[in-house]
Amino acid sequence: MIEEYAIVTSCTDKQATLEIERRTACGLCGQTRGCGNAAWGKLLGHNSHGFTAENPVDAKVGDSVVVGINEQAVLNSAFYLYIVPLMGLLIGTVLADYFFDNQLYVILAAAVGLAAGFVWVKGHLIGKNKSGAAYNKKYQAVILRLANDVTKPQN
Question: Which residues lie across from 36 on neighbouring strands?
């Protein structure tokens, strides 16, 4: 299980919307000197994005939690996102090259094959499951436990 710290921003039933806590290895982010990560952060912004996770621990808004996702789900997602569109591109290219003598058709078939691969991946990874939910539970993040925040003073 791959784990990361997050903050609960909203809750509904057994779902929670989370934002990943930004943790840096050093305190140089946002300063004029530092590593390449700080430079990319200044260029692209350090925006955080929310995501939904199952909430079996009944975490409340503002809680710091440990969220996890199955390692096999991450590996499968990476495989699908890289290999399937690439295979679509290659198959489209080979078929168009075999049937047509025009390079424009080959380029168009490669683009169509790539797009078809991405559409298939989206349908496979995010498509509706048997219960009608708009996501596949296998790829859903889960709140594992409440985090012990050492920065808060103990009373």
Answer: none
Q: At what angle do helices 71-99 and 103-126 cross, to 10 degrees?
A: 150
Q: Which amino acid is at 52?
A: T
Specify whether the backbone of 45 is left (phi greater than 0), alpha (psi in -120 to 50) or beta. left
Characterize the bridge pairing of strands 15-20 and 141-146: unpaired
Exposure on the CB side of residue 72, measured as CA atoms within 13 A: 2
Contact 148, 63 (CB under 8 A): no
So where are the chain's domains?
2-146
Cα atoms in the 13 Å half-sphere on the side-chain side of 9: 12
* Residue 140: both structure tokens together: 């859903």
Tokens representing residue 103 in the block: 């390079």
How far apart (Å, rounded) are the C-alpha atoms in residues 19 and 10? Answer: 10
Residue 28: pLDDT above 90?
no
- Top mean pLDDT of 14-18, 90-94, 138-142, 143-147 is at 90-94
Distance from C-alpha of 119 to C-alpha of 9, rounded to nearest angstrom: 31
